[in-house]
Write a structure and sequence with these properties.
Helix content: 55-70%
CATH topology of the largest domain: AhpD-like
Keywords: Lyase
Enzyme class: lyase
CATH class of the largest domain: Mainly Alpha
CATH architecture of the largest domain: Up-down Bundle
Structural class: mainly alpha
Shape: globular
GO molecular function: 4-carboxymuconolactone decarboxylase activity
Radius of gyration: 14 Å
EC number: 4.1.1.44
Largest sheet: none
Pfam families: CMD
Length: 105
């Protein structure tokens, strides 16, 4: 890992796929997420919406927590799920609400 960037990739990923962990830390979160063209809040909103639409529930709780840290409210996350019910499907929205129930307060 380069610089002062914290490790983001879970230890399990680091143990099983160290290069994937390095790319997660050094490229995705230390470069892509830090680009100035979009704010962290905007990136979180885009990421959460994409994860909901694609049904990537395993990553959703951690990104919802990150979204809250980046200034998105629980109510806004619920509204994203409601909005996406009509575009990504009802099951995707219902799964997102289940994930929302598991995020940190």
């Amino acid at each position: 890992m380069t610089g002062d960037n914290p490790r983001v990739a879970p230890q399990l990923v680091r143990d099983l796929a160290p290069k994937l962990a390095d790319l997660t830390d050094d490229v995705l979160f230390a470069d892509v997420w830090e680009r100035p063209e979009l704010s962290p809040r905007e990136r979180s909103l885009i990421t959460v919406a994409t994860l909901i639409a694609l049904g990537r529930d395993a990553q959703l709780v951690s990104h919802m927590n990150k979204a809250i840290a980046n200034g998105i409210s629980r109510e806004e996350l619920a509204e994203v799920a409601t909005h996406l019910a009509f575009y990504a499907g009802w099951p995707a929205a219902m799964s997102a609400v289940s994930a929302l129930a598991n995020i940190e307060e």
